[in-house]
Amino acid sequence: MHSIATAPMAWKDLIDPVAPQIARMEPLGGRVAGVVTRIEEMIGRGGASSLRRVPSAGATYPYEILLVSPASTSVVLVDLVRRQVVARAGDCFDVDADSYACLLVGRPWLSMRKYGPRGYLYHLIDGGHAIFDLALLSVTEPPPGPGTGLLPGSHDTVIGDVLAAGRITAGAPRSSSRWRLVTTADAHVQSGRTAFEKWATRISPPAPAPVVFDRVGNLPGQPERAVTARRSAGSFTPGYDTEPLRRVIASGVRCADSALEQLNLPRPVVQVTGHGAAAVTRPPTDLLAALGGQDHLIGADAYVVIGVPTRGDDTIDHRRQGLLIAAGVVGQALYLAATESGAAVTGIGGIDPSAWNRVLPAGQQALYLIAVGGSADGEKFDALHPGSHG
Ligand SMILES: Cc1cc2nc3c(=O)[nH]c(=O)nc-3n(C[C@H](O)[C@H](O)[C@H](O)COP(=O)(O)O)c2cc1C
User: Fold this and answer.
1) pLDDT exceeds 90 at position 92
2) Could you give the 3-state DSSP secondary structure of residue 253?
3) In whole angstroms, what is the distance from residue 275 CA to residue 95 CA?
4) Locate the Nitroreductase domain: which residues (predicted)?
């Protein structure tokens, strides 16, 4: 497909798929197996479940994980869905290094194909959720030495923006029955980009500054304990006790503040709305419209509104990108604090911002909410629905 902008589709575009060039497949062994298992435990799938340890707008997970071994400039792809590490034939990737640099690389198109340009915002918020969990790796086991040289020598081999980087220590060598090593004859381990994805990259702003995630020490509230159990609630039942709810939200915000400081990220505005004592302000009167018609979300006891300044020009610069990543960091800290206390929680991006701006200080725009309360059963429409929630 040479130009999606000027030429109609041709017959060969339909019948000639670009097949991945697989040279070899084998079980994954060596110390790198320990590293991918640690990453999987934080942001991958749990056991046989297709659900991931981190939430994502519309379950699109718009980023990739790459590993770089210190001795080489080659990168491998960590495919968290198929549980495979993809290396290039002839690269001689070292599977037995003491530690690896781990890169979180954005793929905004995966979210933009569902949500349009707003998908670029979601990919940074989703990235922030994942960065928070990756930062928990250094809470449990600090990385060796100073965090220099995280990016591969031949940085141009990475396709996409590096949103975050950090060094991860390898444990003892182990072979993983679940993970395999795939060697590809393709020029890049990050294959599978369509012409649409390349086009979306062209309209995206310049890359944000990468967040270094391996320098985070202890965080208040021990959020690492809740990573495995985290889920988004399908719907909410009102009536979660006010005092515990206040404590849950306060503990999540405290943890987020510490993480943002250690990750060197700016702090977005955070305001609690609801009818209980936890709330600073009341939610909008027409709650259903404010939630973009998502009736499964109206029963929450509190909505934590995360906002950013509206003032200034229209440029998407480093500071603004940092605030969007920070919104995801705050979101993940709240998810884990709620999970630890048995409260139901869901991130909400499909909102009418004008309705929520009224509960924020003047000059702030609502971006993202975290609903907290009592859980009720229900389907997670956001993941099932192929269309956009806004
Ligand atoms: C940035 C962001 C926006 C989201 N927006 C909504 C939303 O508007 N409505 C909703 O029901 N869920 C929303 N979610 C939750 C996702 O649907 C959920 O994370 C995804 O379906 C995966 O399910 P899980 O979190 O239970 O693993 C959002 C999550 C994120 C991170």
Assistant:
1) no
2) helix
3) 54
4) 256-373
pLDDT digits (tens, 9 = 90+) for 193-228: 888 898 888 899 999 999 999 999 999 999 999 999
Residue 258 CA: distances (Å) to CA of 20, 208, 262, 322, 333: 43, 21, 6, 16, 10
Q: Is 59 in the pocket of ligand 1 (CB under 6 A)?
A: yes
**For ligand 1, is residue 389 a contact (CB within 6 Å)?**
yes
CA of residue 352 to ligand 1 center, whole Å: 16
What's the pLDDT at 362?
95
Is pLDDT above 60 for 340? yes
Domain positions in the chain are: 11-212, 232-384
Q: Is ligand 1 within 6 A of the CB of residue 38?
A: no
- Minimal CA–CA distance to 245: which of 53, 55, 380, 375? 375
- Asked if residue 388 has pLDDT above 90, the reply is no
163 Cα–ligand 1 center, Å: 20
CA of 349 to the centre of ligand 1 (A): 8
Distance 389 CA to ligand 1 centre (A): 10
User: Is the CB–ligand 1 distance for residue 114 below 6 Å?
Assistant: no
Q: Is the pLDDT of residue 325 over 50?
A: yes
CATH architecture of 232-384: 3-Layer(aba) Sandwich (3.40)
Q: From ligand 1's centre to the CA of 230, what distance in Å? A: 12
